[in-house]
Amino acid sequence: MHTNVPPVNNSILSVSTLNRLVRDCLESAFPLSWVGGEISNLTYAASGHVYFSLKDAGAQVRCVMWRSRAQTLGWRLENGQKVEARALVSFYEPRGEFQLNIEAIRRAGQGDLFERFLRLKAQLENEGIFAVDRKRPLPAFPRRLAIVTSPQAAALRDVLSTLHRRAPHVAISLFPTPVQGDGAGERIAAAIAEAGASDCDTVILCRGGGSIEDLWAFNEECVARAIVACPLPVISGVGHETDFTIADFAADQRAPTPTAAAELAAPEQSRLLEQLARLQDRLQRQSTRRLADRQQTLDWLRSRLVHPAERIASQRRAIDQLTGRLRRALITTTQQQRLRLAALSQRAATAAPQTADRHQTLDQLSRRLAQAAHWQTAQRQMKLNALAAGLKQLDPQAVLSRGYALVIGPDGRALRDNLAVNPGDRLKISLAHGKLDATVLPVVAPDKAD
User: Fold this and answer.
1) What pTM does this model have?
2) DSSP states along 72-100
3) Of these four, 18, 172, 387, 438, which has the most CB atoms within 10 Å of its CB?
4) Domains of the chain, with CATH numbers?
5) CA distances from 265 to 41, 134, 171, 306, 449 (A)
C-alpha cells in the first residue's frame, strides 16, 4: 500500500497541521473495510452517538458510530458481543487519537448467513416462487383465522389483542411451533401444512423482531415451499418493518409487523357494522321507493282495467262497425269494376282492326319498296362502273400497254431522273409483256437530250 506522505523539510508544523495531515493520509490510504472483534468500553452518549472499542487477543481500536447510523441498527449493542463492523479508518484531530468510523455493524457470522439468504432468494425467485401472479387475494370477510407461531411469543399476544379489539367475531385457531432454534424451520413448515388443512380462511405466520440468527428459521427453504403449497392465503408478519425474510417474499401478503398482519387479516368490526348500517339504510330507501313505484303502476293499471262484459260489448260494437264498412266497401268496389268493364268493352269495340284497309295499304307500301330498291340498285351500279373506269385508267399495266416502260434503278426504286444513275449501272425494265435487263451507257445531260 502506497500513501502520499508530504515531503519532510525543516519547517516546523503545528500540532493541528500534523494531525490533519495524519488524518488525510489515513482516510485516503484505507478504503471502507470490514473489521471483526469484540465490543468493550461501550457507551451510549446522550447525543445518540455510540462509542466503544473493538478488540481481539492482540490489540484494540477505538470506534464511533454516529447517531444517524445507530438509529437504523435495529438491535442494541452490548459489551462482549462478537461483531463485524464496516468502518472507515479515521483520526480524531482534537485528541490525536486513531479511531474507526462505523458505517454498518452486524453480529459475527452474519455475513455467511446473509450470503446464504441471497443465494436461496435468487434460487426461489428463478423458480417463480415469488411471482406476483401467484399471490392469492385475502378473503374480505374471514370467519376463522389460523395463527402459526410460538405460544410464548410476544407477537402472539399482539396479534390476539389486535384481533380482539378489531374483530371479536372472528374465530382463531392456534397452530403452535417453535420459531427459532434447531429444527424450527421444519416445525414451522409442518404447522403451516396443518393450518392449510383446517377449516380456516387465512393463515397468519408471525413472530417478533430479532437478529438474523433469531429469524433464520423463516429463511429456510422448507418454510417457503410450505407457504406456496398451502391452499389458504398466507400473511407473513415476521420481525420489525426493516426485517425481511424468505417467508415474506413467498407469502401472499407481507405485513411489516405481527400487529399489521392481524389488521390485514380481518376487517375492523366497527367499520363493517357502519358499512352494514349504510347498506341497510340504502336498501330500505330503495325498497320504499320501489314499493311506491309499484303502487303508482298498480293505480295506473287499475284505471285502465275494464269489466269483461263491457269489453265484450265494446268489441261487438267494433265488429258491427267493421261489418258495415266491409259491406259498403264491397258494394262500392263491385260498382267500380262494372263501370270499368263497360268502358273497356266500348274501347275494345272501337279499336277493332279494319282488315281490308290494312291489306290495301300493305300492297301500296310493297310496290313503293320494290321501286325504291330497283332505283337504288341502278344508282349504285352506275357509280361502280364509273369508279372501275377511273381505277382502270390508274392501273400501271394499262399504261405499259400503251407503249410505256417502268425502269427500276440499282436502288430498287422507279427511275425518274437520268442523273440518278451512272454509266455501268444495271437497270430492270418492265414492259407490257415481259421484262428486260439493261446496262447504262453514257448519261446524257438534260440540256443535251432530244
Assistant:
1) 0.45
2) T--S---TT-EEEEEEEEEEETTTTEEEE
3) 172
4) 15-108 (2.40.50.140), 113-271 (3.40.50.280), 400-448 (no CATH)
5) 46, 19, 12, 62, 137
